[in-house]
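Section 5.1 Outputs to date
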Amino acid sequence: MAELISTWFQSAQERWPSVRWTLVRFGIHVGDESPRHPLDLFLGGAASEWLDSAWTAIYSEFRPEVLRRVARIARRGEPAEDLWSDAVAKLMSEDSAGAVLENGRRAARIRRFRGSVPLPSYIAVIAKRIAVDKIRRDQVAMQYSRTTCCDAMAIQASPDEVMGEQECARRFAEQFGNAFAALPPLRQALLSLVFGPGMAKADAGRILGLRDYEVSREIKASVQSLRDRLEVLDPDTWSIMSTETWTRAWTELDVIEKGDIRDET
């Protein structure tokens, strides 16, 4: 087995000479398995230990194939580029079950790829699952909106209820504005491009000098920051009802209308 692993390692080094991973680490990553795609397992293992050169190779070699594979489902929802970005961002997140590396971080989730299928196929499956989950969420949100609309038409709200809803929306908009203003300028600009004019994540990333996977990672971190801050201000603020209010607040924010969002690039 050791000789076989050494042969795989040499082949991987010839294919990706810039990926400076060690034979020892590769051997540990393989374990006692017999992968059908050992070179892909090498690249995924190197990427799991945060080698930028491995992620660069994944982007340059596998991205076109993944985009081709997700093109059909992308037509029903998120652009293929965004699905690619979200899938890579998920694979780059730390795996809670992964070993702690010398840099103090846990191995990335891509460590779960074991080489039974080509790596582009593996990434495409994750991207498709993300797309399906979003489609389902959109369907639930649409059904909820329809039900709420019908209920609102059937029940005439009292003046006090109307005033209460308006005050709640005003307070949420104010709290959201403060939370948004507390984000770093780069994240403000990124959220404004994606959620404002609806720019594709890949295009927004190019404008701001971010790689595809960095865009999804920054958006996720920004939304979590907003969520945390709003929950501290008002534990009931971030509920299923807040989606419509968030959209309305976004378009009404003085911080956006006054041009306070700065583009770091």
